[in-house]
Design a protein that fits this description.
3 copies of one chain form a homotrimer. By secondary structure, the first copy, chain A, is an alpha/beta fold. Chain A is 32% helix and 21% strand. In chain A, strand 17 and strand 18 form a beta hairpin. In chain A, helix 6 crosses helix 8. Chain A is globular, with a radius of gyration of 26 Å.
């Protein structure tokens, strides 16, 4: 695994560059990412390109032996461009322009801006496309950050109409597909369709889902255009984009189809404080992050569809952008780096080389302080070469293997549930993450797969919620031969956001022999007990009433109705499980699938990469690894402090 | 009482209509409401009317013996109309158009739209006004839903100026009436008056109150115009509108003056989860609804001023639009139907015949599932014919009698308190509803009356809060001879939202011999004890300081100041009572008025209609009716399960 | 100390004026403020001035021997002026005009409006500038009320660009100063700079800080223009403005440089309920106000830089504008008046003479009720002449002396922390107020000083947070010879909102021998213990990691890192202290500075003015003053009821 860093030569005096480069190399780094916000320095006035400083920066870094990831600067169109073409600005749900003065202010649907972004990308490619040190191009930066996927500009509206015309062919088809007869919402033509915003009450969910699909497609299109602008002048280039944590406004798998590498930006403490964890958990994990935050995303992006994945920005100290910004516990920078390795990452690049003393992110730490002294992360990274030496001391296979268990996470499903949650506490991402946490707490390695994955080779596939499960998806799943656990709302909608003819769960219901004619969303605090053989716990938030000819494995204690149904290799959980129920259901299904279970203490996680086994203790206290026979430790021991990492091989 | 259903033939294949109609009749239904969202199918292009499908739908229903309520489709102006006349859209407080894509997007003040709405109504009347099966016309649908009474469009502003000019004659009169000298707010002419929105701090409350009155008047005017458009071609037609629960943005009594029938839309579970009940109550009653939600509205709309009232849309399963949407407990559809009957309803129409699998309300249940199997409500309704047969087994009077107790509920008072709550926890509707609940928990039947009601024939009149109590209202109340209990803020304002010359409570104070020179609004958690003979409890939210020459029945424990004052038949409660105080005050006043008290266990309610007595148990547990001598049960028995209903006659 | 009242003759029939004036004088009042909202009566139509009523009002008051404070009416531009020049309206962050219909709707940057305000002010000066009874002119009313300092109008944007051009000279200088290279935010020219609003994510903090500085400057400029318009016709006039509590959007010290007198508007109960106190405190002090609310502002405005200060509007009963509006406890009007005297006020004017029965503030009490009977405050004020007679019974010095302790409160620091709080619970004003409360609870008199104060003559200076501490400020502080306690974030920023070259705390760090390379913001609930000799407690919200060559007086219990550092007369607290830690640190520093400590029970406060000592008991219970030897009581005794006041002289 390569280590790297994000670097902004334009922020620092040129005389510092050479020493910076030397220090990077000496620290064991081999990658450096530059350029992604530098448009105003590359092209300070339209058409006047200033390459010399960038030439020198690139050459200085290359001379130190560093491989360079060069970013296109399209996330920050400069002020002169906005002045010349104000229509490229995005528009918010309030109908106002999203103004210049920070970043990501452009609309993905602006043809003018896409042309401009390709122009600067092509110019950079022409200049650097054959530079031997530049192996990889990063397109733009963190698509979707600050809620920027959705834009309501005139350009977006026009593009949406074209997108719909292509999708539906005729306005009559669209009216039927959306069910626009419902409230006299029938459109006379595509030109009268607006985005689903500022309506008196909710807009048609079919309309909203198409708007989300369209908006996601616009991101993909924008990204692809830049790649196509670069490729002619950059033969053999690899393309990467750096995604974020818990951003789901566009389909990352669709993006990945155009990428060679996916990088993601891992800020475990910032994500913890920003995401919807309960306050007690935010306090408990405030200096280590939730034990599954980084791991979940590693597993997600490892399976996203690119040849390679890694961390493009790794938190190495306090960040500046969360509601609260504590410092990582000592050891966590090493912990996160080794964790990324254990989960199969090919690289980890830290963010950023040196804390910038000015502008928005001045309180975001780096590896070095603004006065160029090393910060804490720097010293932890220095210790990593010793760790990696120990890991490789015994020659072993470090190829990431397929896991026995797959968890399905689907972007479109998230949009669908956001559009009509039916109960305000039903959050798709929360259900997925709770399921991931439960699996990992049972000691399992998990692959995260998409809704259209083949799914072959898994023993257990867990699908917490997949509203659109058409027959081709179902056939594919059945063909895997795996034990498959489906969760609530699966199969409950058609591709046009309607209830299937056979009611939920559609074809799955036909296959399993039941239907769900009625669901209930429940206020937090209302629960219903569930009991079955080896099954215990309760549902909360959501309950389904099954009309059934199917074996019931567990039943609701109030009325005896089925809560967990089973038919062949398929099981269906008819509600949102609390932690106890989820644990018992997963244990049962894992046992049926012959997936071994290792119950882990709170905060301990294990993970295998090839022959190497890892344990990570995210706290809150020292733990002892409960299985330690016939193993040889390469790192640490069975006793793990908080932030401690152990690695071992099994003795045969 | 007639039973009926809401039906949307335009949502279903024509071949299903005949069977639907037969099944309705077989279920015991005799009413069917149709048409109110079908504009885009009746007139898909301006001026091109497509009647044939509606002819066939009407005839199919009529052939099955069903009486039809035909709705005008003005709640959903179609897209082509918005395209041709975008100025008909309403404008929100944010100054933005409220767009097409859901429903109720029109502005009540648009002359263009009123003309259009009358045009389609007249066209329908011309076609169907003499159809023998169409006895009743519903105008529009749920005025005010989604906060649509108030609009800030150019049309509304122009109409407001005319309305003010008519009301005040001269701008000087307006300036004096509003007290515009206060902050140099004097207007040079009517043309410079804007709606009270987007001001730096609160606008003049007199200005705001007139805006609310004007906005309410615009609803009445819009409704009346449609009736007048229909009547010439529909001789003998009855006119109905379907109102909602807890909607108070327009004066329903003013609307009722133009109607023959008032229908209301009863969604007990949706209202519970949406209205301002404490979370614990929302959990407790989540499957039955609060025991007084439906009853309160029955009593309100029974007294609204029309010849007939009933439920136009009755929840018959889970709805889709509340924050959480649980299913009714088994038996509740029957419970709600019999409860409506007990409270005097002339009809109950269920919403809707069949769950629609597409668009916004696809998760709103119906009597039949999307695949046309019967849902739970269907089966409960089927059982009702047996219930009604038992009720009518012994010939008896079922005419609804006047209650002994009247509760005053006034729309204008609600606007006034919303405009200047003085304490953010003072909510008019909450005070009214708490009082209703307390009266009903004492076993009383209650009539709900308006501020201008004659009030004759009652023994006890409870007026929880009536800020504008002028001398004509006071004279009318005095003439009733009833015991009258007034609550806080009564008489505290003039018609122009000013303090009366004699201070609060104005003429009432003169009559009773006290004034209220000072009030306090209190943060939740601050309470003051109250004690008197047979009076115990505390006030919260609001305390008044009376300057008094009047007998004090109960006093504040902190300073001995009067809390409950009395003079002749009038009593005045100088604060917002907690539940204990409210109960003891109502018991005392009921006793003075010779109104019998029957203390009921939690969740049990009783109600008389003619000779028939009913008991309803909304839970949370099985109860035994505590008075059961000399009665003969027609339905159920003295032991009532949750959701259980009993009915009896008294043996003489 | 003079007593006075705010009076609005235009609200009342002229026949009441003479009696009002007589009653004022009889009550012991000698000051009356009028005119500040009367524009529409002085100039009902452009250019037509109506002076006669105001002539008579002024003469009636003057004839009764009252000195008049005459207000310019610029806070309420009338409707005809808005009609003629709509561009004078302010614009909100949402881009919408802040409309006519309440008050303060003008934009400070409008040249048109500044000219208009000067025109009316000059006209009034021409008429009344030499009137013998008019000694003082109040300019406008409560600058900043309702969030009106910041405006985003075209006029403001244009003025901002000019302001920036003056400040930076060239756009390159600005780009460097702000660090605009960071996200390609470099501006091609001043004309392309917009206010920092509606950006996708946060705008550059340097940009935002300059916007706040600019906006503050516009208030100062507006105020000065009116003074200059009046002065030529009002020789010898004193100028006053009435500021508010907890308003920090403009720099009050800069304003004070143009004033002779500062008045402030003291509403202790309204402030308590509106400001960010915990709910339990809002309940506890609901009828007395927090014991330090009024005192803090007296101490602030006494030191603001004017020759004289006092209360221009004193709450004398319930107000109307807080979320909840309870009545003051009996005695509190007297308490607040004597407290103002103890803190050095030169006058206290009550708001308002008579409760106005109409318009926005009809529920705001006055000294007299709307029906002209006296309200409670009136009677309390009547008793004050006896109190003042007792205070002056023994001839003594009543000149306010310099306190031994100074607390630094700086407007710019508040803007800076608001712009980048880094942790959402870090609120500058809260930190300052907690420190003030702690000092006062230790029995100390406190002077509040600004960031540029000389600071000479103090023994202890407490600077809870001063991010911009340049070397000139530091030199000035060092020259005082006082013990100085600095709090977190001090010295952490340059004047352009960047991290200093030597890191935080900049020059202070150089002087003391440490730096702060890392800070943490902590979620509420996360605390870290602190321990040292005589130092105990914990930090919360904020922790700093010091890199240190300095003596550590107290350390963090988790890692032994320094929490309280000391070098010579300087001490630095590296975190946000909880109440226990703050108390122990202040005790230690006071002891070192030889400032005597008198621990006071909850709610008791003491204060000296010249030879007079005062004690005030804000509750919640009766207390006994714990030091009472060798003193002679002039008011009250050592036993103080809630709302009780004692005054004594020390016997030598």
């Amino acid at each position: 695994m390569k280590l790297g860093v994000c670097y902004y030569p334009e922020h620092w005096p040129e005389q510092m560059w050479a020493q910076d480069a030397t220090r990077m190399r000496d620290l064991g780094l081999s990658l450096v990412r530059i350029g992604e916000f530098a448009w105003s320095r590359i092209e300070p006035v339209r058409g006047r390109f200033v390459w010399d400083w960038l030439d020198r920066a690139i050459n200085t870094l290359a001379d130190a032996g560093l491989a360079i990831v060069l970013g296109t600067p399209s996330a920050t169109p400069p002020r002169w461009l906005i002045r010349d073409a104000p229509s490229i600005l995005a528009v918010g749900t309030d109908g106002r322009l999203r103004g210049f003065g920070s970043r990501r202010h452009y609309c993905f649907s602006s043809d003018i801006y896409r042309t401009e972004a390709c122009r600067i990308a092509a110019a950079m490619a022409e200049r650097y496309g054959r530079h031997p040190a530049i192996s990889t191009w990063q397109i733009d930066n963190e698509y979707g950050c600050h809620g920027t996927v959705l834009s309501y500009s005139a350009a977006a509206i026009a593009a949406f109409r074209v997108w719909l015309a292509n999708r539906y062919g005729s306005i009559d088809s669209l009216n039927v597909a959306w069910g626009n007869v419902f409230w006299s919402m029938e459109y006379p033509d595509f030109e009268t369709i607006e985005p689903p915003v500022a309506t008196v009450t909710e807009a048609n969910p079919a309309h909203r889902l198409d708007w989300r699909r369209f908006s996601s497609d616009q991101v993909i299109r924008f990204n692809r255009a830049q790649i196509e602008a670069i490729r002619p002048n950059a033969p053999g280039a690899q393309f990467v984009h750096n995604t974020m944590g818990f951003f789901t406004d566009y389909d990352h798998r669709a993006l990945a189809r155009d990428l060679d590498v996916v990088g993601w930006d891992s800020y475990p403490l910032g994500f913890l404080d920003s995401f919807e964890f309960p306050d007690a958990e935010k306090q408990q994990w405030c200096r280590t992050g939730h034990p599954d935050i980084a791991a979940f995303h590693h597993d997600l992006y490892r399976g996203i569809g690119t040849a390679s994945f890694g961390v493009m920005e790794q938190q190495a100290g306090p960040v500046n952008w969360a509601p609260h910004n504590p410092a990582p516990l000592s050891g966590m920078v090493r912990f996160w780096t080794l964790e990324a390795f254990a989960h199969g990452a090919d690289f980890v690049a830290y963010f950023r080389w040196r804390q910038c003393p000015f502008a928005q992110e001045q309180m975001h730490s780096g590896l070095r302080l603004p006065d160029d002294r090393p910060d804490i992360g720097f010293d932890e990274i220095a210790s990593l070469s010793d760790d990696f030496a120990r890991l490789h001391a015994i020659p072993s296979n470090t190829r990431t293997q397929r896991s026995a268990v797959a968890l399905m996470f689907d972007y479109e499903s998230n949009w669908l549930v956001e559009i009509q949650p039916h109960g305000e506490n039903f959050r798709y991402r929360e259900l997925i993450f709770q399921t991931y946490t439960a699996l990992r707490g049972l000691g399992m390695d998990v692959d995260i797969i998409g809704a259209d994955a083949e799914g072959t080779g898994y023993r257990l596939i867990v699908i917490p919620c997949l509203p659109i499960l058409d027959s081709s998806r179902l056939d594919r799943l059945r063909a895997t031969g795996a034990q498959i656990l489906f969760g609530p709302r699966t199969g409950s909608k058609t591709a046009h956001f309607a209830i299937p003819d056979t009611l939920a769960p559609g074809d799955l219901g036909t296959a399993m022999g039941f239907s769900i004619p009625r669901v209930e969303s429940l206020r937090t605090g209302v629960t219903i007990g569930v009991h079955g053989e080896a099954i215990e716990g309760a549902i909360t938030h959501w309950r389904e009433h099954a009309c059934v000819r199917t074996a019931s494995v567990a039943a609701y204690t109030t009325d005896g109705a089925p809560a967990l149904l089973e038919a062949g290799d398929f099981a269906y959980l008819a509600g949102w499980p609390d932690a106890v129920l989820l644990d018992s259901v997963l244990r049962r299904q894992a046992t049926r699938a012959s997936v071994p279970i290792r119950q882990l203490p709170t905060g301990l996680r294990i993970r295998r990469r090839g022959d190497l086994h890892f344990a990570f203790n995210a706290g809150p206290q020292r733990v002892t690894i409960p299985f330690r026979e016939n193993i040889q430790f390469l790192l640490g021991s069975a006793d793990l402090e908080v932030a401690g990492v152990a690695a071992w091989i099994e003795l045969t």
